[in-house]
From TrEMBL, chain A:
Record domain TRAP C4-dicarboxylate transport system permease DctM subunit: where: 14-425
Organism expressing this protein natively: Hydrogenophaga pseudoflava
Entry similarity comment: Belongs to the TRAP transporter large permease family.
Name of the gene this protein is made from: siaT7
Identification of the protein by name: TRAP transporter large permease protein
GO CC term, one of those recorded: plasma membrane
Subcellular location(s) of the protein: Cell inner membrane
TrEMBL record, chain C:
GO cellular component, one term: plasma membrane
Transmembrane segments: 49-70, 91-112, 132-155
The species this protein was found in: Hydrogenophaga pseudoflava
Bilayer topology: Multi-pass membrane protein
Keyword Transport attached: yes
Name under which the protein is recorded: TRAP transporter small permease protein
Length: 435, 314, 165
């Protein structure tokens, strides 16, 4: 062990220490990074780096997709697009056993195509579908668990703010990651539906069957869903067809969603203010996190500790599968007590070089990371999405929600294993589209 | 005494042409010649700062001690070096680099105050890459053209094209998806960023180079021990500029040959009559650069003089 | 108490600034949509729009920082405080506020220097050749405001912690 490695470890400890003492994660990483870099390379450059890194991130067009997609998602909610999706999904499968839960998951998936956040998706469907599930006699825990888990589809289905963060820090193209996530997203939807089918067969009392929608109701629901389909098709289709870049698609999507909100007369002073303020808060805190992460990343790079770690791991002769498994366990444990995105960002300078040294594709690892984050958002004690649903439905006990989430957790872990074992599921589509 | 450690930043990956063939050898050579007074460590792949636009700032801030910089990425500061960006002026990177370095060494160029340039140089000229054949200026009319640099932007506008701004890493993608219809890059860039895999028609028309440099802070250089300074002096200067140009040209030739040989790509060299058509539109744009400032006239004349001598073998 | 009226005012001002900034972001998005349309349909994008958009975006995002810091909408983990009781929690929150304010004060200081450097070296926006220091001075101003706001939260008692995704 040489000094830089020790210094890096101290830097990591300092970061975790500051985080434990309530310091915001971005600030903790930034402070540890600046001090560490200063000790190695001098404090003048370390201080100057604060401004230049902040500049890079603030002026980055890639990162600018985050606030724009948040805006799009907010205006889409204001315009009532989630309710349309839910109604459509309900009209199609509501009469089956677990149909309302399936409709919720389907609605979440559809909304995920216009919203980049898992929390926002869960919050939106907590309002759009939770009351109707409970009024139809669903067990509150199962209903809430469905919303919490369905919400995580928001970060797996493009657009996704977490994929943007990963792509920017790993220096990969956002669009490649988006395309890579499409097949895994489809798999996620199927696994969710299977989890519902299995669970409702085992515990039919959790999900009573509802009435079948009439043809007229179905037609009406389909017609009402046109705007959301149009929005998703424009944003993703336009990007895939080359009409615009990822950043431009986010801008166009935000403007279109705003247009729908105006057109449906849903935009009041109050809803406009809420949408804008929500965007300001979310984007601001994501930028603080990323600025801190880049400062810490430079510190880690200048110590050359990541390379030392790669060499050490390779020299140790640990089989790759065991090392990947150990990484998974580490991430899931970290996600239990830590903010999952922060965990990904802090570990990135060390984990990514390892992944690349094993010959894995960083794009595949990006998809895996998102799925791990999905799982982390549902695991106790700190399951962000569970907290969000609890916030919307305070009368449902937390333990009941965690119980309701369990079938989805099992299916998520199965899904993660499938994606780990078959990287082609993530890498095939980007390969094909590249020609 | 312990050697003075210098951090050398490159935004390119370690195996990229210039980093592998010029910068890393420079670091090794200067370190070896310094009699133990100097140790230059490479930080390639942007580990000290991945934004190509910020490389000069890394050096002036002291985050890095030596930097590999693309000069037009600091708009407004090195306007004099735009001379290499004029279409049809230079035909390869070696002559352009040596000529530009001589202009720098004799103090003709402004903007370098406080900097110690180990070398100033230029890339090979950019040429046109598209998916439909491009032969004459009319083929640019109404087309979306990716290009960077002030002068090239004006050239494209004069040709009736629409200059579109796209970051370096996203060019191939923008071209393959049709966000842009064509892109102007040198062949080395085409190889590094796989532009040839998303384009099929290439017109070998030299539309201007991009000025680059290997930079230190003057005060940082002056503070080095004498052996370290002379080791650096010995490894840099015009000889380094020439190496830089030659490395560019080698890669240029290799990639052009590889792309020409490929069945899916057609590389066209314009005839003299065709070049004349292009010059009819572009020469006035070049002329407007020459007359924009009195000093541009002087720089243009001095650069042409150096090129003449270099082509004559001096 | 006058203390809490004061902090309520600061919070309102920071929120107002953030509101205006995100409104500006929406306008910028509209400009981008127009640029895309002009490029796609008429092959004539707005000259130099992308450079202006990226700089203006930076200013608008920096204008959200005061709100984020004043309202303490930040990604943080408060397990320790929750398990040790409210007295501890207050002390830890105060410590975190000090560190945050100090970090942003450093950033503000460096940004003022950065903006001055951009002014002195006369750096320009490519193509349009407008001076970039105008934009970075605005960013510097908002980060100074953010740092000042963060300093004020040190003395303020937080009711409940905000969470995030
Ligand atoms: Na999404
Ligand atoms: Na968790």
């Amino acid at each position: 062990m040489n000094d830089p490695v020790v210094l890096t470890l101290l830097g990591l400890f300092a970061t975790f220490g500051l985080v434990a003492l309530h310091v915001p994660v971005g600030v903790a990483m930034g402070a540890a990074g600046v001090v560490g870099f200063g000790l190695l390379a001098g404090f003048d450059p370390a201080l100057a780096m604060i401004a230049s890194e902040t500049t890079n991130n603030l002026a980055s067009l890639e990162l600018a997709t985050i606030p724009l997609f948040v805006l799009m998602g907010s205006f889409a909610s204001v315009a009532g697009l989630p309710e349309d999706l839910y109604r459509l999904a309900y009209a199609l499968v509501g009469h089956r056993r677990g149909g309302l839960a399936m409709a919720t998951v389907g609605g979440c998936a559809g909304f995920g195509a216009v919203c980049g956040s898992s929390v926002a998706t869960a919050a939106t469907f907590g309002k759009a579908s939770l009351p109707s599930m409970i009024s139809r006699g669903y067990s509150p825990g199962f209903a809430a668990g469905t919303v919490a888990s369905g919400g995580t589809l928001g970060i797996l289905i493009p657009p996704s703010s977490i994929m943007v963060i990963y792509a920017v820090l790993a220096q990969e193209l956002i669009i490649t990651l988006y395309i890579a996530a499409l097949v895994p997203a489809l798999i996620a939807l199927v696994f969710h539906l299977c989890a519902i089918a299995v669970h409702t067969r085992l515990r039919p009392q959790d999900a009573p069957i509802g009435p079948r929608a009439t043809a007229a109701e179905r037609w009406q629901a389909a017609r009402m869903s046109c705007p959301v389909v149009f929005l998703a098709a424009t944003v993703i289709g336009g990007m895939a067809a080359g009409v615009f870049t990822a950043t431009e698609s986010a801008a166009v999507g935000a403007v279109l969603a705003f247009g729908f909100a105006v057109w449906r007369r849903a935009l009041t002073r109050k809803t406009l203010r809420q949408a804008l303020m929500g965007t300001a808060g979310t984007s601001g805190m994501i930028y603080v996190l990323i600025i801190g992460a880049s400062l810490f990343g430079y510190f880690a790079a200048v110590t050359q500790a990541p390379q030392a770690m790669v060499e050490a791991v390779q020299a140790s002769g640990i089989p790759v599968w065991a090392a990947v498994l150990a990484l998974m366990v580490m991430f899931i444990l970290a996600g239990a007590v830590f903010d999952e995105v922060a965990a990904m960002v802090i570990s990135m300078p060390f984990v990514l070089p390892l992944i690349i040294s094993w010959g894995f594709d960083p794009i595949w690892w990006g998809v895996i990371n998102v799925v791990i984050i999905e799982i982390g958002m549902l695991t106790p004690p700190l399951g962000m999405n569970v907290f969000v649903v609890k916030g919307i439905a305070p009368t449902i006990p937390l333990t009941a929600i965690y119980r309701g989430v369990t079938p989805y957790l099992v299916s998520n872990i199965l899904r993660l294993s499938v994606l780990l074992m078959f990287p082609a599921l993530s890498l095939w589509l980007p390969q094909v589209l590249k020609g | 005494a312990d050697p003075v450690k210098l951090k050398f930043s490159s935004f390119e990956p370690p195996m990229a042409n210039i980093t592998a063939n010029v910068l890393t050898p420079l670091a090794k050579e200067a370190t070896a010649a310094s009699k133990g007074s100097l140790q230059i460590d490479m930080f390639a792949g942007g580990t000290l700062g991945r934004n190509p636009l910020q490389q000069l700032k890394l050096v002036t801030d002291g985050v890095a001690d030596v930097g590999w910089v693309v000069l037009p990425y600091t708009p407004g500061r090195f306007d004099d070096t735009e001379i290499v960006g004029l279409p049809f002026v230079t035909s390869n990177a070696t002559e352009a680099s040596v000529a530009l370095h001589r202009l720098y060494a004799e103090g003709t160029l402004v903007g370098f105050e406080g900097l110690k340039m180990l070398a100033v140089g230029a890339t090979p000229p950019v040429v046109i890459h598209a998916n439909k054949p491009v032969r004459l200026p009319a083929d640019l009319k109404g087309k979306r053209v990716r290009a960077s640099g002030d002068h090239l932007t004006r050239v494209i506008e004069a040709l009736g094209g629409a200059p579109v701004q796209v970051g370096g890493g996203q060019i191939a993608e923008s071209l393959s998806r049709g966000v842009v219809d064509m892109t102007l890059n040198n062949w080395g860039f085409v190889g590094d960023f796989k532009v040839n895999e998303v384009s099929s028609q290439h017109l070998d028309l030299p539309l201007g180079a991009v000025a680059v440099g290997i930079v230190m802070r003057q005060d940082r250089f002056d503070a080095l021990p004498p052996e370290a300074r002379s080791a650096l002096e010995g490894a840099s200067g015009e000889a380094l500029a020439r190496k830089l140009g030659q490395a560019f040209d080698r890669q240029e030739k290799e990639v052009r040959a590889r792309v020409s040989a490929s069945g899916r790509n057609t590389v066209t060299t314009p005839s003299e009559a065709e070049v004349a058509e292009w010059r009819k539109v572009i020469d006035p744009v070049n002329e407007s650069w020459r007359t924009a400032k009195p000093r541009n006239q002087r720089i243009h004349a001095a650069f042409a003089e150096h090129l003449k001598r270099i082509r004559a073998g001096a | 108490m006058s203390d809490s009226i004061w902090s309520a005012r600061v919070e309102r001002a920071a929120a107002g600034l953030a509101l205006a900034a995100v409104g500006g972001l929406l306008l910028l998005a509209a400009g981008t949509a127009v640029d895309v349309l002009l490029r796609f349909v008429f092959a004539s994008p707005i000259r130099g729009f992308v450079d202006i958009a990226s700089l203006t975006g930076a200013v608008l995002l920096a204008a959200c920082f005061p709100h984020v810091l004043v309202s303490r909408t930040n990604i943080s983990v408060d397990i320790l405080g929750r398990s040790l009781g409210s007295g501890f929690k207050t002390a830890l929150d105060r410590f975190a506020a000090v560190v945050t304010a100090a970090f942003f004060a450093l950033m503000a200081w460096q940004y003022v220097r950065f903006a001055m450097e951009m002014h002195e070296t006369q750096q320009l926006i490519p193509v349009l050749r407008w001076p970039v220091w105008l934009w970075w001075s605005a960013v510097a101003l908002f980060i100074v405001l953010a740092a000042s706001g963060a300093a004020l939260t040190v003395w303020k008692r937080m009711p409940e912690d905000n969470s995030n995704e």
